[in-house]
Design brief:
Number of domains: 2
Number of helices: 10
Order of helices and strands: HHEEEHHHHHHHH
Helix content: 55-70%
Strand order of the largest sheet: 1-2-3
Largest sheet: 3 strands, antiparallel
Oligomer: single chain
Distance between the termini: 70 Å
Strand content: 5-15%
Length: 251
């Protein structure tokens, strides 16, 4: 197999990891491991929005490749599939065509359906509202708040708006609908509803991966993830605060 083919396989695997929320040390380790499985020396540098790879064969033929990754999500299932693919290559090298087919099947593997994601979102708000000393009626209100928030944010995501505005709007919806539920039914405590509902927006995986990267010595990548998490938290907080401020002045 040529150096170019191995580089393409490794970069494709690394980009799947990056776009699905894998840690930096995992991405670089997996990409280098795939190249080594085919007998190549490799140096990989993973950044927040792309991967840089330099490979060299026994004849000192060296190739440097780069792949940019823009859309991101969190999908631990795809990360596990790539890890399994990388481990199997050490004992069973596959052809270029088979490797690309396997990676394409991983990239196109089915995700949870929209109704399942909505159900999980609503249950998250319900459980956390109860967890933070909310009553049963607060939890039920959180279900409707999470439902409205998820439906709207899912729709506006298709318009390619900035991440900050998306989370700001989501926070505004949560704050506004929670306050409205309290106005319609005073026994509902809007603070408990807000606390439970915003859990569907908090970047727990991003923050955890940032901590892992710092622990493994990838300070720039870890700080970048911290900044991303901070932007999301700030946007959500600003949205909720704006809704509450408008609600207090209006009522």
């Amino acid at each position: 197999m040529t150096v170019e083919n191995v580089s393409e396989i490794a970069l494709m695997a690394g980009s799947i990891l990056l776009e699905n929320g894998a840690e930096t040390h995992r991405i670089e380790g997996t990409v280098s491991s795939i190249c080594q499985s085919y007998g190549l020396n490799a140096e990989c540098l993973s950044m927040s929005n792309g991967i840089l790879l330099s490979t060299q064969d026994s004849e000192s033929k060296k190739i440097t490749s780069m792949k940019k990754v823009c859309p991101k999500q969190v999908d631990l299932y795809r990360i596990e599939l790539i890890n399994s693919f990388s481990r199997k290559l050490k004992n069973n090298k596959v052809s270029y065509v088979d490797a690309i087919k396997t990676l394409e099947s991983i990239q196109n593997s089915p995700t949870f359906t929209f109704p399942v994601r909505i159900f999980a979102s609503c249950m998250t708000g319900f459980v956390y509202s109860l967890f933070f000393n909310g009553s049963l009626i607060d939890g039920i209100a959180s279900i409707f708040v999470c439902l409205i928030t998820y439906l709207i944010t899912e729709k506006i995501s298709n318009f390619g708006i900035s991440q900050f505005f998306k989370y700001y709007l989501a926070g505004f919806i949560i704050g506004g609908t929670s306050l409205l539920s309290h106005i319609l039914l005073p026994s509902i405590k809007e603070n408990n509803v807000i606390t439970g509902s915003i859990m569907i927006l908090l970047p727990g995986v991003v923050l955890t991966n940032g901590i892992k990267d710092v622990i493994f010595g990838y300070f720039s990548a870890g700080i970048a993830k911290f900044c991303e998490a901070l932007i999301i938290i700030t946007a959500v907080s600003a949205g909720v605060g704006t809704a509450l401020l408008i609600g207090m002045k209006g009522f």
